[in-house]
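W.,

You were right to be curious about this one. When I first looked at the sequence I had no strong expectations either way, so I just let the prediction run and decided to look at it fresh. Below is the sequence, 355 residues in total, followed by the output.
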Amino acid sequence: MSRKTIRVLVVDDSALIRNVMSEILSEDPEIEVVGTAPDPYVARDKIKALNPDVLTLDVEMPKMDGLTFLQKLMAARPMPVVMVSSLTEQGAATTLQALESGAVDFVTKPTVDIQHGLSDLAFQIVQKVKTAAQASVKKRTLPVDCAERIKALAAQSAMIKTTDTIIAIGASTGGTEALRELLEVLPPNTPPIVMTQHMPERFTKSFADRLNQLCQIQVKEAQEGDSVIPGQALLAPGNYHMELRRSGARYYVSLNQGPPINRHRPSVDAMFRSVAHYAGGNSLGVILTGMGNDGAAGMLEMKQAGAFNIAQDEASCVVFGMPKEAIKAGGVDKILPLSEIPGALLSQLKMLSSR
C-alpha cells in the first residue's frame, strides 16, 4: 500500500523563497506542494480551498506577521505548521513565541545567498515537514493553573534532602513547550539538571533565557566547565554536544564539537551516556517528545548503570518518536503523561534521599 502524499502550502512574502522551498519539497516523492501564498490573507483562502496537511510559514511578512496569523490559525483550525525563521536573536525570540503558540517546528533561513543556503538545508526542510505531518496538533487550551501545581509539588519537595542525584532530560520536536511545562513547576531545591533539546545556535540562549524568566530554578545555556549544582538547569548550546564530567565530589559539564550523533549536535545520546558513566545510579533520566531515536541507546546505558528513567507517553507527545524508541530499547522504567512527570521525579527523589 503506497503512503499518503503530504500536501504542503508554502507561505512566504518572498517569491524567491516560495520557489526554492517548493522545488526542495517537490523533489521528495512523498510530498506535494499544493500551492503557495505571499501573505496570510491569501494563505487563509488557500487553506480553505486546498486543505493542506502542513503549512510552512514565514515569521516576517507584510499585512499580518506570521506569528499573529499562526495564533489565529491555531484558534480556528489547528494544523501542523513549520515556521521559517531568520537566524538572528530577534528571529529566535519570535520563533520561540511561535512554538508556544502551537507551531510544530522551525527551519532557519540564511541571511545571505538564500537560494544556495536553503538548498544546503534541503534534507532538514524535508524531514521537518514529514515530521510535522505526523505530529499531534490540538486546539490550544488554557494550561493547568501553574500556581496550583507549584503549591502541590512544594509539599512533596519539602521532604527532599540534599542528594548527589543528577536529572538528565532529552527532547526534540515539541520539546520546547514540554520542557517549559516540566521545569516551571519544579521547586527551587530541585537537584541539578542537565538537558539537551535539538536546536541551532543562538536559539538555545534565547530559549534558556525564556525558561529562566518562568521557572523557580535557574536555567542557563551551558558554558564549558559550568558546575552542575542544585536549583539549576544547564541547557546544551546549539552546535555543541554537552557531556557530564566529575572531579572529586564536583560535577561539571564539558562541551565539544565532535561529529553529529544520530544526525544531531547537540545529541541526547552523548549527554545520557556521560551521565550513565559519571553519575550511574545517582541519576534520573527523562525523555520527552521528539522525532527519531536520539537518546534511546544512552537511556538504556543509564538504566544499566542503575538510573531510574521516565518517558513521556504518546497521548501527551507532539511526536512519539524518541520516547517510543527508548521504551522499545528497554531503557524506560515508567511511561507517564507530561503533567505527571514533575511529581514522579520528586517522588523518586524522596525515595533516593531516604536511603
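Here's what jumped out at me. The longest strand covers residues 31-37. And, maybe more interesting for your project: The CA atoms of residues 82 and 129 lie 7 Å apart.

Coffee later to discuss?

I.
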